[in-house]
Amino acid sequence: MRISNIGFFIILQLLGLTLWLLNSHATVVHSQNVEYLPGFDGPLPFSLETGYIGMDKGEVQLFYYFFESENNPKQDPVILWLTGGPLCSAMSAILYEIGPIQLEEVDNIETIPKLFLRQYAWTKTASILFVDFPAGAGFSYAETSRANYSGDFKASHNINQFLRKWLLNHPQFLSNPLYLGGDSYIGFTLPLYFIDMVYDNERGSQPFLNLKGYILGNPATDRFIDSNYQVPFAHGMGLISDEQYESLQRTYKGQYQLVNARNQECRNNIKNFEWGLLGIQITMTLESYCDIDSLRIHGISGSKRRKMIDRVNSLLHLKQLGAYTCRKEGYLVAKHWMNQKSVQKALHVRKETIGNWIRCNYKFNYSYEVPSSVPYHVKISAKGFRSLIYSGDHDMIVPFLGTQAWIRSLNYSIIDDWRKWLVDSQIAGFTRTYANRMTFATVKGAGHTAPEYKPKQCAFMFKRWIRGEAL
Predict the structure, then answer these.
(1) Is residue 316 part of a domain?
(2) CA-to-CA distance for 170 and 163, rounded, in angstroms?
(3) Which domain holds residue 385?
(4) Residue 98: inside a domain, yes or no?
(5) Helix, strand, or coil here: 190?
(6) Which of 89, 140, 184, 381 is catalytic?
(7) Enclosing H/E stretch for 246
(8) Cβ 396 vs Cβ 280: under 8 Å
(9) What is the DSSP string of 249-313?
(10) Among this protein's residues, is 293 annotated catalytic?
């Protein structure tokens, strides 16, 4: 049989990739299809694969969930989706935000809750690779004490290598358009991951990543800007009076985070501001207050956070309140479901590798090293990649005002000015597009993070943007 020059070249490339695979310890330890899940009636009507990929010579085992597009997996984009936190499980995004399944609301957590299909899943438009990342999140784990540590820069190296190894084991997706996506804390790190992948592409790393752009929801971006805009956000939402806002402006001249610790008046003003907001659900200011929300407050000490987690992340606490007394209590239903042996067996989780599954593992050693991702956005924009940045307009953790501020600091021309975008002839939010191919959108009535509150609107936003359509 005669082999063409093109065929011979492809064979050589595959041989080269195979050698790279072996030399870089890129071994898929475990990879299987999931056909049934406890709580779901019948076989799953979509393609789900789970598995582990070894990093750092196998010392780190990263667990993933891969959902093929329900539309056209051969041509649709592939999205690598990373959950914020850091160290929050990918299952948080799957069950509560953009995945094809979700848990029913239950009052009795003694039984396994029912699963049902999410009508507005993003997997109807794209294939999505969710990863428990880094080690310590979800079912991902470290084999050695040395590997029982991560940070922003180490994570960038690991996710870069993970994605290339995963694609080597799934070569049918090498030519699909590839995007990175995530929300919350991932706003600090995903731009770093993206530009590192681009640089490795330029250096000839294999396989070549067919990167097209990135998506960030409610993204923490700059430690100063994000928190500094909580004061004007609170005023704009009617949470503090004009007089208090004007007093804060006079005292801090817009620099609310530069509090002089020696100045008693400064400390008192900020304490009064914070005290006045006690009882406000900062993840979504329109919803009733829930004490589990306090886990998300920026700057809380590690020891104090752990004590609060131990207190609220308990089934006893959930029983006392009743499931879904407030939205965040629903996370505890996921904890109950994910720790069922039958669920972990169905997902092909390796036995006795992590102990109990928790949604966000704040006890793991992690170094927060990126104070601002704005410089990485600049580098990515200079290379012409697309981006979608969206904000729930009732999110006080990462206020949309701060997101708008750092986008303005990029100093790019506006090519589609501020306008409403619609779903079912109703205003779903407002949007603006810039010359650097960046689209910013607010999601009206959404909190942190937007798809959890407005799934239909966010699904339409994603579908239009990923297909290159105007919002």
Answers:
(1) no
(2) 10
(3) 5-223+370-466
(4) yes
(5) helix
(6) 184
(7) helix 242-252
(8) yes
(9) HHHHTT-TT---TT-HHHHHHHHHHHHHTTT--TT-TTSPP-GGGGGG-TT--HHHHHHHHHHHS
(10) no
> 443: which strand partners?
392
Residue-level pLDDT, tens digit, the chain, 471 residues: 444 443 443 343 444 454 444 444 445 546 799 999 999 999 999 999 999 999 888 789 999 999 999 999 999 999 999 998 889 999 999 999 999 999 987 666 667 889 999 999 999 999 999 999 999 999 999 988 777 788 999 999 999 999 999 999 999 999 999 999 999 999 999 999 999 999 999 999 999 999 999 999 999 999 999 989 999 999 999 999 999 999 888 888 878 876 555 577 777 888 888 888 888 989 999 998 876 544 333 333 344 444 433 433 333 333 333 334 566 667 878 888 999 999 999 999 999 999 899 999 888 889 999 999 999 999 999 999 999 999 999 999 999 999 999 999 999 999 999 999 999 999 999 999 999 999 999 999 999 999 999 999 999 999 999 999 999
Residue 361 within any structural domain of the chain: no
Concerning whether 424 is annotated as a catalytic residue, the answer is no
Residue 422 β-bridge partners: 427
Taking alpha carbons only, the member of 123, 124, 122, 105 closest to residue 114 is: 105
Which residues lie across from 400 on neighbouring strands? none
What are the structure tokens assigned to 174, written together? 């090498």
3-state secondary structure of 138: coil
User: Which residues lie closer than 8 Å to 192 by C-beta, 6 or more apart?
Assistant: 152, 153, 156, 370, 373, 376
Number of domains in the chain: 1
Block residue for tokens 């924009």 = 381
CATH number of 375's domain: 3.40.50.1820
Please pick, among 132, 183, 222, 395, the residue that the annotation labels catalytic. Answer: 395
Structural domain includes residue 173:
yes
First-to-last alpha carbon distance for the chain, in angstroms, is 51
In angstroms, what CA-CA distances link 221 with 29, 123, 185, 241, 335? 34, 26, 8, 28, 29
* Tally of helices (H runs) and strands (E runs) in the chain: 16, 16
Element (H, E) at 390: strand 386-392
Residue 258, judged by CB atoms within 10 A of its CB (0-12, 13-18, 19+), counts as exposed
The rounded distance, in Å, linking the Cα atoms of 460 and 36 is 28
Are the C-beta atoms of 63 and 138 separated by less than 8 Å?
yes
DSSP 114: P
CB 88 within 8 A of CB 153: no
Peptide bond into 134 cis (omega under 30): yes
The reply to whether 184 belongs to the active site is yes
The residue annotated as part of the active site, out of 336, 377, 394, 448, is 448
The SS3 of residue 452 is helix
